[in-house]
Amino acid sequence: MLRSLIHHIVAIPFVYNCAQFVLGGRIMQKKFEDLCDGLQFGDGWVLDYAGGTGRSRPFLDKAKRYLLMDIDMVKIEGYKTKFDQDYACLCDVTAPPIQSNSADIIFARNLLHHLTTEQMDEMFEAIPRLLKSNGTLVITEPLANSSRWIGRLLWRYDRGDYPKTIDMILERIKRSHTISHIEECTVLHDYLIVVAKPNLRI
Ligand SMILES: C[S@@+](CC[C@H](N)C(=O)[O-])C[C@H]1O[C@@H](n2cnc3c(N)ncnc32)[C@H](O)[C@@H]1O
Hints:
Blueprint: H1 2-10, H2 13-37, E1 45-49, E2 65-70, H3 73-82, E3 87-90, E4 103-109, H4 117-130, E5 131-142, H5 149-157, H6 166-176, E6 177-187, E7 189-198
Parallel strand pairs: 1-2, 1-4, 2-3, 4-5
Antiparallel strand pairs: 5-7, 6-7
Bound molecules: S-adenosylmethionine.
Residues 20, 50-52, 55, 70-72, 75, 92-94, 109-111, 114 line the site of S-adenosylmethionine (SAM).
């Protein structure tokens, strides 16, 4: 009851953005901004998987073709109020309606805890098809960590029902990608940041 009330309130785009700010999102946002500064942007698509209200968009102004993808229409509408010239796609990241070999960069920020293990597998299977051969995958994700009480409390009320450990995530990424950067940090939750390239297709 309390959990579903919190979910309804936090679904409002303005409240969602405030919640991210309070929960340490500002620190992670700065890390994300620094990471984006070092990325190669080409002519292909920059896909913001589960982009929500578009919190990543301001740091991706080097993207020539940016597409926010999300399964939640309320979030997309919140995004379009700020970035009405941009493209957005109401879709599921496990079945992205995107042309093969067309993306320079795919971002998946704070998404994996919304996906079952099977859905995560489907998502990672599709990514090497969408990315160009020199394309880049960027994942940032809060981790399941039972040793921190604050982390446990936050997970109890989080909308994502499938928090994952660092081992689960890295093992899955490595099956189809080569990792070039791994970083862990703690801001209430423990977070993982990974940058990877798709393995060569034969
Ligand atoms: C915690 S929010 C993260 C939003 C944004 N990436 C950020 O960091 O602010 C998770 C987002 O994943 C979206 N989502 C969950 N499952 C999805 C799926 N299967 N396909 C696309 N989006 C999904 C939700 O609608 C929500 O906007």
